[in-house]
Structure formats: C-alpha cells, structure tokens
Amino acid sequence: MSGRNVQEKKADEKKKFSLNRHDIRTRLIVLIMISIITPLAVFGFFSYKKSYELLENKLLVTSQQTIDATQYYVNQFINAMESQLLAIGDNKNIKSALSSDLAVEGNAREVLDATQKSNPDALGVYIGLADGRTYLYPQQELPDGYDPRERQWYKAALENSGEVVVSEPYIDAFTQKMVITISKTVSDAAGNLTGVVAMDIDTSSIAAKVAKLSIGKNGYVSLVSNDGITIVHPDESIIGTEKVKELGFWQAVSSSEKGTQKYEYEGKQRFMAFSTDADTGWKIIASMDVDELLADTNVIKKFAVGAVIFGLVAAVAIALLIANNVAKPLAEGVAYLRRMADGDFTSEISRESLERQDELGEIAKAIDKLQEDLKSLLGNIIQSTYTVGDSAAALADISNQSTRAAEEVARTVEEISRGAEEQAGDTERGSTKMLHISHMMEEISSKAAEMTQISRSTGELAEKGIEIVKDLTDKNEQSSKASGEVDSIVNRVAKDVAGIGAILETIVSIAEQTNLLALNANIEAARAGEHGKGFAVVAEEVRKLSEESSKSAEEIRGIIQQIQGSTAEAIVAMEKADSASKQQSSSVGQTNEVFATISKALGNLAGYINEMQKDIAGMNVQKEEMEGLMQNIASSAQQSSAATEEVSAAMEEQLASMEELSSNAQNLEALSDDLKTQVQRFRI
User: How many CB atoms within 10 Å of residue 524?
Assistant: First the structure.
C-alpha cells in the first residue's frame, strides 16, 4: 500500500470520526427532547380532546334541557287550547242548540263569543254542522258555496272522531300570522254526529316564550313542523316557509326522533340537537355556532401549546448538558485515537478520563491499554522487518538463477514436443485417409451385395413373368376358341330367328285369312236370320281370336326384329374380339421373347457381380492389414507426443513456479522496504 493511499484513508477516518461525534451529540439531544416533548404533547392533546368532549356533552345537556323546556311550553299551550275546544264540544247549550232548531244560532254564538274573549290566542272559533251550515266568531263573510265538510280541518276531525286534531301550521290570509287549527267532532246526547268544532290559534305566544330561551351566547331554538314548515325562528323571513328543507341536516332530522348534527348556515359551522314532540310531531331544534364551543376550548389549547414550548426549552437545556457531559470525553478519546492513527504513540490519555466510574471511563482505560500493546507490537515488527528484508533479497537472487535454468530446459523440451506433434499429426492424417478408404470399400461391398440381391430378385421376377406369359398364351388360345364357338352360336341363332320370322309371316297370313272367313261367316249368318245366330256367335269369336293372333304375331315380329338387330351387333363385336385376340396373341409372343432376353442378361450380370465381390473381399483383407499398421504407427506417435507434452507441461509448471517464487521474492523484498518506511513514521 502506497503512502498516499494511507494518508487518504486516515483523512477519511478523521472525517468519519468527526461525523460520528456530531451524530452522537445530535442523537442524544434529539432523543432527550423527544422523551420530554412527547409526553407533554400527548398530555396536551388528550387534555384538549377530553375538554372538548366535556364541553360538547355539556352543550348537549343544555340543548336537551332547552328542548325539554320548549316542548313543555308547546304541550302546555296546545293542551290549554285542546281543553277549551273540549269544553265547547261538551257544552250542553251547544249540544242542545245543534240538536234542535230552537235558538240554535243565538246559543252557539254566545258560547263561541265567550270562548274567543277568554283566550287571546284564539283568532277564531267556529262550528261546521253535518248539514253544511257554519257558525263562527268573530263573524266574517263566507264565500258563496262554502261547505265546511270539504275543509281539511273537518275531514281530519271525522277521521279521528272523538280526538282533538292539530293541523299543520300555515299563514292566516287575514292576519298574516302563523296559525294552527285544532278541531274535534261534536255529538248530540244520543251520540249522533252533529258537526265539528274548530279553533284557529295564533302561535305568537309560543314564539315569544321560545325566543326567551337561549343556548350559549348566540344559540337559539326553532320549531319546524313535520312537513318542514318553520313555525318559530329568530329570522322572521323564514317563518311559514320550507327553507329548512334546503339545509343539509333536514333529511336526518325528518327521519329521526332525536339526535345531533353539524351543518353550515350562512357561511358558519353550526352544531344542533333536535327532538320530536310526541303530540304534534313538530321538530324542536336547538343550535349554536361551533366557534362558540371552540372558544371555551381555546384556553386549554393555548395552555397545552405553552406547556409544550416550555418543555421544548427545558428539553434543549437538559439535552445540551447531558450531551456535553458525554461528548467531551468521547472527543478526547477520538483525538487520542487520531494521534495513534497518525503514528504518535507518545501521548497519554488524561487522568480525569481514566478515573471516571462509568462506561466512558472503561473506554479510556481500554484505549490506554491498546496503546501500550501496540507500542510493544510495533517494536517487534520493526526488528522483524530488517530480518525479513535480508532474507527476501537472498531468496530473490536464488529464484532468478533457478528461473533462467528452467527456461533453457523448457525450450529444449518444447522443440522435442514440436517434432513429436508433427509426426503424430502426419500419422493421424494418414490414418484418417486410410479410414476414409476403408469406409469407401465397405460402401462398395455393400452396394455389390445390394446389386446381387437386386439381380436375384430381378431374375425371379423374369421367371415369374415368363410363367405368366405362358399362362397368358394358354388363356388367349382358350379365349380364341371360346370366341369361335360364340360366333358359331350367334350365326345359328340368326338363322333360327330368320326361320321363326318366316313361320311368323305364315301365321299372320293365316290369321288374316281366318279374319276374312269369319267376316264372311257373319255376313252369311245375318242372311240366315234366326237360324244363323248361333253360327254368327261362333264366327265372331273366331274373328276375335284371329285379331288377337294378328296382334301377338306383330309383337313377336317386333321382338324378332330386336333379336336380329342384337344378333347383328353381336356378330360385329365377335369379329372385333377375334381381331383383338389375334393381336393379343402376337403381343404375348413378343413379351415372351423379351422376358427370355432379360433372363439371359441377368444371368450374365450375376456372374460379373460374383467376380467383383471376390475382388472386393481381397481388397478388404489388405485394407484391414493396412489399418492395423496405421493404428500401430499412430499409437506410437501419440505415446511419444503425450510423453513430450507431459515433460513440457511439467517444465512449464516448474518454470511458472520459479517465476512465481521469483515474483514473490521480489514482492517480499519490496514489502519489506515499504514496511521499513512505514514503521519509521511511528514514534514509540
């Protein structure tokens, strides 16, 4: 290793030590800060969360109390109105007035007037009779055709007979106030339905009482009907509308009896709790700004943040104190090790570090012992370096001399090996050519054997062909004889058919004469009158038989003509067959001659092939002797070449070993010199 590489390595180690010291100090500070800040942050977070939950629960309790109070006001108000309506329905004067025609209008108006005056929230009290008449107070002009039985308040009372029915809220057309209508059926003493009594009620008093209720600083309570119509709200423009349906929470509110929701209204996040009145089905909603809830928790949040900041400052101070207490002795130890790395073993570690009773003190003691051991080791190395240097120089001289001698021997062996390789190569090439000739001889022998087999097969086929030609000649002669016999038979048939034709002509002539005789007999029978009737019948039968004979003769004539035509065609065909048979006989004779020639030529070819096989057998014997000689020569050449190659390889290995030994001796000498240079830089 060169001096420059050693210096670069030391510089890298110094940089690494510096970074490690910085990392340890930083890590100590970070770990201490985390161990202090984390519990504070967790405590602050859970304190804030718990406080928020407590305030939220408090808000829920407050909201529920407000909702319960609102529900109490609504129920109290509705119950008071229902009591008055029940009193009207049960009033004896009303029942007696409605069940008779005497002073009906006067009694009814007195009761309605008294009820309206005693209840300032009652905008109007009225009765709809079963016969379609209406009595109300204060008196108003009703439109023409007004029928109370068609009104919703009347129908709702009939559907819930005997119970007080509360209508959905609506804006009164005359007063422009939010109004609800309560109604109940009225029966006479006998229990028969006589009509429905109803009362329009102003909800302003409910709104006034609900408006006095508040949640927090800016929270409020609102009333909404089950259909989404706002009854009570701080914003009067919303009263009587269904704008609440446009808000995101309405779907959850309308489908649940009670619960809580967060929603956005006029750009602010709000929190609301709601409940449903069991009697009216109205939704009582208590809501407030989320910011108001968060305002109470901000104090806790600020306190938690302050605690974390204070803990951070304290953690930094504690971390710096602990880190410096640990990093200072570590820095001293690193500096001491750095001097040792630079080759200075004369310095001593401080007594303060050696006397520490902790892990850092143990490290200082270990470093001090390491220096003493290294000083002793370096002294031994320096002494051994000079001894190794002298031995390496002597070994290098000896190895150089041995290398030169080995090179001379290797060159001589290489020349011998080259000659042996050339001889082996020539012998191998001759053996290869001889092997090629041997393959060719084997192929020629194989082809000759194939030709012999083919010649035998061809001879056998030629003999079979001659036998087949002989058989064909016999068959052809038999065919010619059969054709002659058929020709004779056809000629006889033609003659017989001609004789049959002559006989047929005779039969036709006889039939014609018989027909004429029968005709004459009929004529004579006709002349004889009654005596000739029997003869006429016989003559008629004879005439019919004569006609049938003529027809049969004509049919036979047609058949004979067909037979004569077929016979003529058969004669022509037999003449052609006879001519073809003669040509076939000639061709068969020629074929027989060709097969005889082929058989003779094949006999000559077989003789030639036998002589060629004898010559090939002699050549194979000589070829085998030549192959044996070539193999012996090649084996001797290969053994000689292998022996020289082994000697050459052994010399090459010895030369390589000598060169490696010389190289190692030189390297050892160089390393010894370098080691001397290196150990000289240490001060012990």
Answer: 13
Helix (H, G, I), strand (E, B) or coil at 602: helix
The sign one gets for the Cα dihedral 62, 67, 71, 73 is positive
Instruction: Compute the half-sphere exposure of residue 48: CA atoms within 13 Å on the CB side of its CA.
Output: 18
Inter-axis angle of helices 359-528 and 533-679, to 10 degrees?
A: 170
Residues of the chain with pLDDT under 50: 1-11, 13-21, 102-103
Q: What ranges make up the beta strands (E) of 130-279?
A: 134-137, 165-166, 170-171, 178-187, 193-202, 220-224, 230-232, 258-265, 268-276
Q: How high is the pLDDT of residue 155?
A: 92
How much is the pLDDT for 15? 46
pTM, two decimal places: 0.40
Q: Which residues pair with 265 in a beta bridge?
A: 268
Residue 14 sits at φ, ψ, to 5 deg, of -60, -45
Can you tell me the distance from the alpha carbon of 522 to that of 540, in angstroms, rounded to the nearest whole number?
A: 7
Chain-centroid distance of CA 433 in Å reads 67
Kindly state the helix (H) or strand (E) to which residue 122 belongs, with its residue range: strand 122-129
Rounded Cα distance between 136 and 170, Å, is 19
User: 175 by DSSP, 3-state: which?
Assistant: coil
- For 446-483, the DSSP string reads HHHHHHHHHHHHHHHHHHHHHHHHHHHHHHHHHHHHHH
Query: What token pair was written down for 98?
Result: 């409605």
| Residues contacting residue 326 through CB under 8 Å, at least 6 positions apart | 24, 25, 28, 360
Of 326, 334, 337, 361, the C-alpha closest to 26 is 326
The CA radius of gyration of the chain, in Å to the nearest whole number, is 73
CA–CA gap between residue 122 and residue 108 (Å, rounded): 17
Q: State in Å, rounded, how far the first CA of the chain is from the last one.
A: 22
- The two three-digit tokens of residue 330, written as one number: 């570590």
**In the Cβ-directed half-sphere of 252, how many Cα atoms lie within 13 Å?**
13
Whether 218 and 146 have beta carbons less than 8 Å apart is answered as no
For 628, the token pair is: 């044996």
Residue 266 DSSP label: T
Residue 447 is predicted with a pLDDT of 65
Query: What domains appear along the chain, each with residue ranges and CATH number?
Result: 55-298 (3.30.450.20), 379-675 (1.10.287.950)
Query: Which of 636, 628, 641, 30 has its CA nearest to residue 312?
Result: 30
pLDDT tens digit sequence for 563-592: 777 777 767 766 776 676 667 667 666 666
d(C-alpha 612, C-alpha 618), whole Å: 10
- Lookup result for tokens 């519990």: 39
What φ, ψ does residue 169 adopt, rounded to 5°? -65, 155
pLDDT of res. 363:
75
167: closest CA among 157, 122, 83, 258?
A: 157
- Tell me the two tokens of residue 28: 């100590």
Residues 6+ apart with CB under 8 A from 246: none
